[in-house]
Amino acid sequence: MNNGRTNASTKGPRALTAISAAVLGLALLAASASTAASGTPESTPRSAASSAPQYRAQRAVDDFAQWEKKLILPPHVTARLDWARKSLAPSGHQKLERLALATAPAIAAGTDFAALRKKTEMDRVITSAGLSGMEASEAAFIVLAMATKDMDDDIRIIMAEIKATNAAKQKLGDQIKQLNQWISEDMSKAKDDAKPSDIDNTTVSGKPPQASEKPQAVKAPPARGIVLEKVASPTIHLEYVKAPDIPPLPPRSSGAGVDAPKSLLAERMSDLDGLNEFSEMTALRLQMTMDRRSKFISTLSQMMKKTSTTQDILIQNIK
């Protein structure tokens, strides 16, 4: 009995390895069967890029919701911007706004905060006003906060396009599903029409039966692929793809065969592949920008704690 237990314990790891390999093989086999069953190889040679996994789609939705919540400046930053807008002379406020617009791309690009702050403090708009030391730091804080707000406005533009792009991808997916259904129905009908008839078509005169006329194929209107237009946001120049206009499917032609639907299906699948690729690139750029924004906001808050309130000096000099 002891020898049996010893041998069993020795062979245990090997047995577990064999079982694990068998289970893995069955899992891969089941996955392959599931993939094969979910498509129609005769008519829908789909590529992997045109159908993103469900978990990726859900993650994108979750990230998108989180991004929208983050596009709010901290209350203390908002309060300082409100003060600047109400207290500074209009001409002075406009000077700071122009400087902020020029600074926003550096924030989006992840420029070192200390270097960016120093550059802002040394800008001609601030130095020509006679500001230095803590006054210059205070003015730089207002400029950097304005720049962050300008960057947020660009991000909102891009997020709106992402929403519209997701709707366009949904429409393309619906069209692909509809075309697959048309092709499946047409192929099924063609198979039924090809069955031999039980009726004797020979005539009394012994002449061979006349071949039945085939229905004239109706050509579908030429397919129009979508146009993907890449643009850059107005302030931080972040590149993204505008949501395309998805043309409707042409009317279904009875008796036209499956060639036209198949051609249109291939085009719509290609459109969806391209749209998925570009939208993923846009999402990646936006994610990087949001990460940089989060770090910048944190550092900006620390900067505010270190600066003194020199409101009277700013009001007198920035005009």
Write the layout of secondary structure elements.
Layout: H1 2-38, H2 54-70, H3 75-87, H4 90-108, H5 113-121, H6 124-127, H7 134-193, E1 230-232, E2 239-241, H8 259-306, H9 311-317
Antiparallel strand pairs: 1-2
Helix pairs in contact: 4-7, 5-7, 7-8
Structure description:
With 319 residues, the protein is mainly alpha-helical. The chain is built from nine helices and two strands; from the N terminus they run αααααααββαα. It has helices spanning 2-38, 54-70, 75-87, 90-108, 113-121, 124-127, 134-193, 259-306, 311-317; strands at residues 230-232, 239-241. A two-stranded antiparallel ribbon has the order 1-2. The protein is rod-shaped and about 90 Å long. The model is unreliable at 1-55 and 214-223 (pLDDT under 50).
Mean pLDDT comes to 76
Low-confidence segments: 1-55, 214-223
Number of helical elements: 9
Oligomer: single chain
Write a brief structural summary.
The chain is mostly helical and 319 residues long.
Structural descriptors:
319 residues, mainly alpha, 9 helices, 2 strands, disordered N terminus
